Amino acid sequence: MKNILVLFVVIFFLACDGSTPVTEPEKKISPEIMEDIFYDLTVMKSVQNSIDLNEEFKSYLGTQYIYEKYGIDSLQLIQNQMYYVQKPKLMKKIFQNLEARYLNIQDSLDTLIKNEYKN
Q1: Does 72 fall in a domain?
Q2: Which residues contact 97 (CB under 8 A, 6 or more apart)?
Q3: What is the model's pTM?
Q4: Number of other CB atoms surrounding residue 112 within 10 Å
Q5: Residues 66, 37: contact at Cβ < 8 Å?
Q6: Domain count, the chain
Q7: Does some domain include residue 75?
Q8: Residue from 91, 97, 77, 102 nearest 13 by CA
Q9: Is residue 111 part of a domain?
């Protein structure tokens, strides 16, 4: 999961060369919601890549789920991603929060695994 996070950060920072003006999208998504969207997308992608899913569950792990959950559409998501990409300090904060969330999950999973092996 950390590799995916690093990849996102690298792509976003490379895309920020300052040559285009920062224009706020019509329907701006708050940084907290963008963090949640990135989190959900990363977790869904990890689940898709880590296990053999039953076909009936695959539809739940697509971007359509994100659109419905957050009440957005693909254009709104892309516009907001482009907006946040042009604000590297804000993106850095979002990804630092994401990293903390991923580490928390990892710690929780490690605890569950240790407890399972004790029994």
Answers
A1: yes
A2: 35
A3: 0.71
A4: 10
A5: yes
A6: 1
A7: yes
A8: 91
A9: no
Structure tokens at 65: 């789920």
Among 9-13, 43-47, 75-79, 105-109, the least confident range: 9-13
What type of residue sits at position 56? Answer: E
Tokens of 33: 């919601």
* Both tokens assigned to 95: 């990804």
Give the domain range for residue 80. Answer: 2-16+28-103
Q: In whole angstroms, give the CA distance from residue 52 to residue 55.
A: 9
Q: Count Cα neighbours of 18 within 13 Å in the Cβ-side half-sphere.
A: 2
The phi and psi torsions of 22 (rounded to 5 degrees) equal -85, 110
Q: Which is nearest to 5 in space by CA: 110, 87, 94?
A: 94
Please list the alpha-helical segments (H only) found in 51-87. Answer: 55-58, 63-70, 74-85
